[in-house]
Amino acid sequence: MKIRYALLLLLPLFYACADSNDGVSDLQAQASALAETLSAPHTPANEAFLVSLLRNELGSEPFYLIEYRELRDDEDDTRALLASYERVLSEQLRLVGAYTAFDNVVLQQITNPEGRAWHQVRGIYFPSPQALLDVLQAPAYQQALEGEHAATRQLHAFWLTPEVLRQPVDLQPDKDEFYMANLNQHREQALYPDGTSRGLTGAEADALYTDTMLAEVLPGIGAYPVLGGTYTHLILGSDAAWDTFALVRYPSLPEFLGMVTSPRFQELVVNKGAGLARSSAMRTAAVKALSLAP
Which of 257, 260, 258 is nearest to 272 (CA)? Predict the structure, then answer.
């Protein structure tokens, strides 16, 4: 009798667990279906990210989606496909209060550890994770996305939690200024030329470089970061091993070259080399005026 009574007590718990597992399975299936819709063979969607997005686990704060593109060779077809995609994207972004904050063409890849020929880097401001989910789930966007995939060889898209945000001053895209797009991955322990860490982590060594650059070197030539922050979630692509992203505005190439050949920079950059396991740096130009402030 006691055993039967105990089994009766356990039955509701069993069904509750079964319902819970069904809920998880349904969510996984929903994320998998959404990933398949959003992906192409060269851009596998990150299902773990989509599960977190569907579960509403990513908070409600604004963020930037940063996207790197490698375009296909046929310029006419590529241009037409992307133009069609951008029209639909702009409308979907407008509906959720999002917008393209910057859209830059790559002029030169200075460091490129992946060996990919990136052609564009851009950032889209989203007021919340829900706004991104609304766009990703919109049938019109999903259909238009086929055009972007057809126009590109590689896509790398990630979530940026902004920590530095500064609107460019008097930007004129046809002038001499350019924007350096930087991705950085820190070493666990710093590694200086003498083979020691000097008691620093990679992030601490890089901070010695970055803090002095921000306080002293960049202001001296009228340069400054317009957007910087933490690489948080991989959305499209396969390379998740980055830590930070920064977009830095420089007034001209001659001033940039003068900066990197100066004794002060050469002294500081040793810390950056010690702190970073790898980096990607691209010189880019704005296709249109940047608008980072929401």
Answer: 260
